[in-house]
Amino acid sequence: MRRSGTDPMTCGGCGLSALGATAAPLLWLSMPRTRRHLGGGFENEGMDLTVLLTELPLVTLGGAFLPLLALTLLTRLRDRDRRRQRQP
Q1: What is the pLDDT of residue 6?
Q2: What pTM value is reported for the model?
Q3: pLDDT band for position 41 (cuts 50, 70, 90)
Q4: What is the four-CA torsion angle of 28, 30, 31, 35, rounded to 10 degrees?
Q5: How far apart are CA 2 and CA 6, in angstroms?
Q6: Could you give the CA distance from residue 51 to residue 61 in angstroms, rounded to a whole number?
Q7: Mean pLDDT for the stretch of residues 33-40
Q8: Among 67, 59, 65, which Cα is nearest to 28's?
Q9: What is the pLDDT of residues 51-88, one digit of tens each?
Q10: How far is CA 42 from the centre of its chain?
């Protein structure tokens, strides 16, 4: 059987990746440490804009890849269990 690239698992993985890449930076921006670095401290005390170049890309990539990793692991475990059940 030939599998197409648009099966539900592929679409689900892309959706989870997009959701994670969006949610992770929003969560990161809501943290007190990040707000302090972006000017939320007293009289800009502790302001450090390099976090936008160092932490933000890593947070976004992590948010995109962690859901895909979890989906891949769950899919492999599910397929492995299905193969075990089919064997006599």
Answers
A1: 63
A2: 0.72
A3: low
A4: 100
A5: 12
A6: 15
A7: 80
A8: 59
A9: 889 999 999 999 999 998 988 888 888 888 888 888 76
A10: 32
CA distance 24 to 34: 13
In sequence order, the 6+-apart residues with CB closer than 8 A to the CB of 72 are 13
d(CA 20, CA 40): 25
Within 10 A of 26 (CB to CB), how many other CB atoms are there?
10
Distances, alpha carbon 32 to alpha carbons 36, 41, 61, 73, in Å? 6, 10, 21, 33
* Angle, vertex CA 66, rays to CA 84 and CA 6, nearest 5: 65
Token pair 């692991």 in the structure block, residue: 73
28 contacts 57 by C-beta, under 8 angstroms:
no
Distance CA 43, CA 55 (A): 23
Q: Which two tokens stand for residue 37?
A: 């670095």
